[in-house]
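User: I'll paste a sequence; please echo it back and then give the predicted structure.

Assistant: Echoing your sequence first, then the prediction.
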Amino acid sequence: MAKFGEGDPRWIVEHRDDGHNVNGWHWTEKDRTKWAKTFFENQLCKEYRQEEAGGWTYVVKVKSVKSCTGDAVVRNRKGKKVCGYDFQLKLEWEGKVLSSDLEGDNTDIGALKGTLEIPEFADDEENFEVLVKCKSITDDVQQKIRNLVDHTVTEGIRSVLGTFHEALLDCDAR
């Protein structure tokens, strides 16, 4: 170790009393909130289908990210990347049932609309809650749509959000 005041010219950064982050060596922090919101819109808004006997097809489409509040950052500390994020998401979905008649045309039989809420999606939370909300269910067809949302759609959302951490780290490399 060098004696105080005897700096080695090969040192990348010398001690600074003012705490200045010379050439970004000690740390950098980049706001990736806009990128994250685009990721959510592109990856979460998709269609889920379940086909059953008799020509019935249950279709649920996550139509939009109704609200997305929070932030995402990628930090680089001495060459090591770390990300941090905390979001509250609200998604709109719409479900319907299609039935093929004899001519092969699809006829819309039932419909149901609602929201999916994720009250806290954060880098320090592995198990996040997905709340399903919809108008009151009046028949078996709507109940099957709700079951599709409760199981298949929420699993799909969990799967996509499970890739978010690595995608956020990778977005900084591009």
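The chain has three helices and six strands. Residues 47 and 61 are 4 Å apart (CA to CA).
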